[in-house]
Predict the 3D structure of the following.
Amino acid sequence: MTKNRFLLLVLFTALVSLLITVKVYAQDPAPTPASATVPSDNDVNLVAKKLYCPVCPNTPLDVCETQACKDWRAQIRDQLASGWTEQEVMDYFVKQYGERVLAEPERGGFTSLVWMLPLLIVALGLVFVGVVLKSWRASRLSRPLVQPEPQTGISKQILDKIEAEIRNMD
């Protein structure tokens, strides 16, 4: 009977421990209301990567270490926490500092040349190379295969007589 009691105690302990076990989020914790509203550093950097520091030349906002950029990243975090979309944040910075803060200029109007000019240059270069190759080929084909004999000042009749005499000598 003690064996049955021991087995019953083990089963009861196992059942109780299974019932009181709480799901553990080891790698990916469940979002809480507080953490759901606070954007992560990655969320902030995704927006900051698309903006350039208006103070430092040619420095993306996500890697700039000036205090102004740290403040702007904090501002981006606050705006994202308030529910702003990425485009609204970017539009805000463009309104404040101009289009020069965009890492990628808008595709429209005069700035469309930034996108079209490289393609246009490559196309014109290919056309130029094609024209040059065609002209080289045409000049090569127009040249005679047999080069004309150099002029020696001796008439054709005299040369023919000399050749005939050379043949007769044999």
